Amino acid sequence: MNVDLIQISTKTTEKALDRERVISELTNLKEEDRRLSDRVSWRKKTLNTLYLALDKLCFESNAYWEREIEYTGSMEKQIDNHMQHGSKSLAKEKKILREIHMCQQSDDSSNFLLKELTNILISLKWRYHNIEKNCEQVLREIKEFELAREKAIDNVAVMGKIWSSVGLREAMRNQVKMILDELMVIKKKRLSLATKMKHVGKELDVIEKETWCFQTHLKHQGNDEAYICRFDLDQYSRKELWIMYHSKLGHESC
């Protein structure tokens, strides 16, 4: 009986250690998957910014920018001119103001987009050395773009060429391709992790079932052993009491 209890106790202890090991492994796998998930989220945010910038570069026509520059070149001069000639009604004057305001908003949006793109690329460059060269190329293109735009604020032709910059577009597209390739690698890693987590999860289920069986068996064995011990103790106590009782009677008869 004691030998069986010792064997079961040993197996239960071994299973408990196996359980701790498997839980630790599963926790590490989940943590790695969480880190990869965070990387995916951050990369997607970067891609969104790059796509927005590419849209701005690729789909804004020169005519749009010519119209914008025409309105934003000298706002007060345009309004004064219309008012002096008296050829515009109040409604048309308001329309002109709305168009000017919309053009200013578009320019502010472009500036904000470039600033956001610059910040993300700087962060990328410092965090990931393997794409440092590509990031620096995009940053140089953006800087050249901003300087050229400041110098050519009244030059419609130059502004059109700036926004259709082949170098800037190409640098951004290279960056997009690199991030997409990285996302594909991360996807494969997460699929592999998912398979491992599933396997480890099944292993944990088996260990927990076996542990429960050993503990249940140990409990029953322990109860049987305890009952036998109590029975032996009771028998021993009765025998001792009987001896003590008759010994006392013998002394009293003397």
UniProtKB/TrEMBL annotation:
<comment type="similarity">
    <text>Belongs to the plant Proton pump-interactor protein family.</text>
</comment>
<keyword id="KW-0175">Coiled coil</keyword>
<feature type="coiled-coil region">
    <location>
        <begin position="128"/>
        <end position="155"/>
    </location>
</feature>
<keyword id="KW-0256">Endoplasmic reticulum</keyword>
<protein>
    <submittedName>
        <fullName>Proton pump-interactor 1-like</fullName>
    </submittedName>
</protein>
<dbReference type="GO" id="GO:0005789">
    <property type="term" value="C:endoplasmic reticulum membrane"/>
</dbReference>
<keyword id="KW-1003">Cell membrane</keyword>
<keyword id="KW-0812">Transmembrane</keyword>
<dbReference type="InterPro" id="IPR055282">
    <property type="entry name" value="PPI1-4"/>
</dbReference>
<keyword id="KW-0472">Membrane</keyword>
<dbReference type="GO" id="GO:0005886">
    <property type="term" value="C:plasma membrane"/>
</dbReference>
<keyword id="KW-1133">Transmembrane helix</keyword>
